[in-house]
Design goal:
alpha+beta; globular; 16 helices; FAD/NAD(P)-binding domain
């Protein structure tokens, strides 16, 4: 997909043949965005791909499933930003013009007891978007801006990725905002947009990721902060069509099949699953973070066993490198739990309520979605019952959660934000609490596992995998999936797929300012 931003960066794939000359087999563990992205590129180049998915359907953490009375449930609202170039490229296989993505006209954010911010009318091109937002936002009073630390503020537009990720090793998002000295309301705005969108407590979330996302979604990209959403539930709009496409390419999809262990075999890789053993030349591990760590442990256990009996294939130095890699992988953590409460109400919310509202300063509530504004199945239910389908999110919960108390607290927050819901009958209610997202914490960026591994034929993919480009969430999943496929294809001398990225340099490092800076640097 061609980006709107002229500064977007295209990374061409390594040259090679258009397809495989001899059959190669690949097992992909995980049918989320990362696994499906890798499987698509590999199958299009002629690889024989088997996807192993522990759940009953495609989509991973962006899946949707039916519940009683012709309703659907999911893990919650996802914003498909215009900067998600590689994810959109994946969708174009079954929807060339992306007609199934519907634009959301605004992304309002409200602070409890405070003002509401909007992104609809500000310019899209940096630096005019930043200037326009600061001048029009009630969250950025001019008297408050006088206290902002200028040096820290300039860091937001003085980025150069991937080096800028390492610049903030050991620093949290909260600590960065402390030294930035944003006005209090603006600080909460930054945290709600970025840190909590990663399901993380700001004190645990990486400052490097915060800065990267500020760059990607705002200060460094001309795509803006607005986004699209699918016009129906995720399975209907996205994954069922892609599943049919992959089936047409000969991809074998094994759902409701759990990968229990991975071992290296003489000819490649062997995956022990609940349905049997799958052998393949190569392996893409694109499972959720905890499953990825668990499965890599099974490789380590097997490799330690063979090495102890004198059959290990690595030299002592290689074994130390491998041991260090296993240690770094095992050190990764998951984010705290999050909750999704979906309500089918017998009365409609006010007609001026937005499709999506970000909230800040409430006991639990982080955002509200009104699904009939964009999702066809929810719209049908709302029309038939003269009601609304409303979804509430709460991020970074305590590890021990009382479900009834959590639901009641979320409802109280909803009633405060949308008072017309206070007396609306709840016809149906679905509560989901999960804790399976990766945590991008303050440890060294280089210590996070990347796409490539020390084990030949094994690559990793997922939104918890290190990527040198300023991408995150669903787009990091798609990008690392593409990169994983390209890595394997490169070993077979087959051309992969180009990768698109938002600009990797900030405003101070590109254009005339960047050239002047580089010229001055060269004179020293």
């Amino acid at each position: 997909m061609t980006p709107h931003d002229p500064q977007a960066r295209r990374l061409p794939a390594a040259p090679g043949r258009r397809s495989l000359l001899r059959p190669k087999t690949v097992t992909v563990i995980g049918a989320g965005i990362a696994g499906l992205s890798a499987a698509t590129i590999l199958a299009e180049r002629g690889a024989k791909v088997t996807i192993v998915e522990s759940g009953p359907r495609l989509g991973g953490r962006v899946s949707a499933w039916p519940v009683a009375d012709d309703r659907t449930m999911s893990r919650g609202f996802h914003a498909f930003f215009r900067q998600y170039y590689n994810l959109r490229d994946l969708f174009s296989r079954t929807d060339p013009d992306l007609d199934r993505l519907r634009p959301i006209p605004d992304y309002p954010l409200i602070r409890r007891g405070g003002p509401t911010d909007s992104f609809a009318s500000i310019p899209r091109t940096p630096p005019f978007n930043l200037l326009g937002f600061v001048l029009t936002s009630p969250t950025f009073p001019l008297r408050g801006l006088a206290h902002v630390d200028l040096g820290t503020a300039l860091e937001l537009i003085d980025v150069d990725f991937p080096d800028s990720f390492c610049r903030y090793d050991g620093e949290s998002a909260a600590a960065f905002l402390d030294r930035l000295r944003f006005p209090d309301q603006a600080r909460h705005l930054a945290l709600e947009i970025f840190a909590r969108s990663f399901f993380a407590d700001p004190n645990d979330f990486s400052a490097g990721e915060l800065v990267a996302m500020f760059h990607t979604y705002f200060a460094g990209s001309a795509e803006g902060l607005l986004f699209d959403v699918p016009d129906d539930d995720y399975d209907t709009a996205l994954w069922a069509p892609l599943g049919r496409y992959l089936d047409g390419l000969g991809v074998r999809i094994e759902t409701s099949t759990e990968a229990r262990a991975i071992t290296r075999s003489p000819h490649g890789w062997s995956v022990d699953t609940t349905a049997g053993t799958i052998d393949s030349d190569t392996l893409v591990l694109a499972a959720d973070p905890a499953s990825t760590r668990r499965l890599i442990t099974t490789i380590e256990e097997h490799d330690d066993s063979t090495a102890a009996h004198g059959t290990g294939r690595e030299a002592p130095g290689d074994r130390q490198e491998l041991h260090d890699w296993f240690t770094r992988v095992a050190a990764q953590r998951n984010s705290p739990p999050f909750a999704v409460l979906r309500l089918w109400l017998a009365e409609a919310v006010a007609p001026d309520r937005p499709a999506f509202l970000g909230t800040s300063g409430f006991a639990l509530l982080d955002n509200i979605s009104v699904l009939e504004r964009f999702e066809a199945s929810a719209a049908r239910w709302a029309e038939e019952h003269a009601g609304s389908v409303v979804e509430l999110h709460a991020y970074a919960l305590a590890d021990s959660v009382d479900e009834d108390a959590l639901a009641e607290r979320l409802l109280a927050d909803l009633h405060e934000v949308y008072p017309e819901t206070r007396h609306a009958e709840i016809v149906h209610r679905e509560l989901l609490i999960e804790s399976d997202c990766g945590l991008t914490d303050t440890r060294a960026w280089a210590d996070r596992p990347g796409v490539t591994t020390p084990l030949p034929g094994l690559v990793l993919a997922g939104d918890h995998i290190r990527c040198e480009l300023p991408v995150a969430l669903m787009e990091r999943a798609a990008t690392t999936g593409y990169l994983a496929a390209n890595e394997l294809l490169g070993t077979w001398r087959v051309a992969g797929t180009p990768i698109w990225s938002p600009p990797t340099r900030g405003l101070l490092r590109r254009g005339p300012l960047g050239r002047l800076r580089r010229t001055k640097k060269g004179t020293h």
